[in-house]
Amino acid sequence: MRFSGKVAIITGGASGIGAATARRLHGEGACVLIADVNDSLGAAFAAELGDGRALYRHVDVSSWEEVEAMVAGALAAFGRLDILFNNAGVGSFAATPDVSIEEWRRVIDIDLSGVFYGCRAAIPVMKAQGGGAIINTASASGMAGDYSFAAYNAAKGGVVNYTRAAGIDHARDGIRINAVCPGPVDTPIIAGIDAWQGVREAWNERVPMGRFARAEEIASVVAFLACDDASFMTGAIIAVDGGLTAHTGQPNLPRLLAGL
């Protein structure tokens, strides 16, 4: 019950990593506000958690007004805010000439500006109450480039360096701000890859652990960063990617040579 008496907001909380984290924090005693744009899924999930410690709220994180109201709503419902998990995000698959202006703005507004809005709304509240923990979902794709992920790479790279800046800015306010960088995770955001034969297998080949993560594995790291065990961590960028970003990208020579 590490989070007994604590209040958490989780954006993108109706499914995937967000839902796994909401379930984990709630299970360890936290009150959770689940923010998402999928109203039917979010409301059902909050009802499933039950017991008055879980609420759902419709929030489009690309809107400053909605994010500001989200934080105010958590305060009205639970009286404080201890943890913010800026997790909502969208993908994008296109090289620069093929990214429309509208698509670029959509990805940046949700994946990067949404993180900034969440921090901007939460930091004054946390500072006034003496501290808090913010965790931002970046990505392995924020730590290096991918083929034809121009907008997504830009947004997640922005989250990485914004987390560093915000972390040092507010370290002496008692607010810890860190980021997780998942590799491939079995969540709805990439569920469509199985429509393309061989893509999952190729991805598994690139991950040293040889598989996608489960959402619960990312949630475990988020829970660690949110709890007092991570009390001396801020501005940290934590890869949770099965070794993906530890690899230079060069061929697996022992495997190749073994086949000769």
Task: Spell out the blueprint of helices and strands.
Layout: E1 7-11, H1 16-27, E2 31-36, H2 39-49, E3 54-58, H3 64-78, E4 83-86, H4 101-129, E5 132-137, H5 150-169, E6 175-182, H6 199-206, H7 215-226, E7 237-240, H8 253-258
Parallel strand pairs: 1-2, 1-4, 2-3, 4-5, 5-6, 6-7
Helix pairs in contact: 1-7, 3-4, 4-5
What do you see in this structure?
The protein has a single domain (7-258), classed as 3-Layer(aba) Sandwich (Rossmann fold). Helices cover 43% and strands 15% of the residues. The protein contains eight helices and seven strands. The chain has helices spanning 16-27, 39-49, 64-78, 101-129, 150-169, 199-206, 215-226, 253-258; strands at residues 7-11, 31-36, 54-58, 83-86, 132-137, 175-182, 237-240. A seven-stranded parallel β-sheet has the order 3-2-1-4-5-6-7, with helices on both faces. Helix 4 links the parallel strand 4 and strand 5.
Key structural traits:
7-stranded parallel β-sheet; Rossmann fold; single chain; alpha/beta; 15% strand; 260 residues; 8 helices
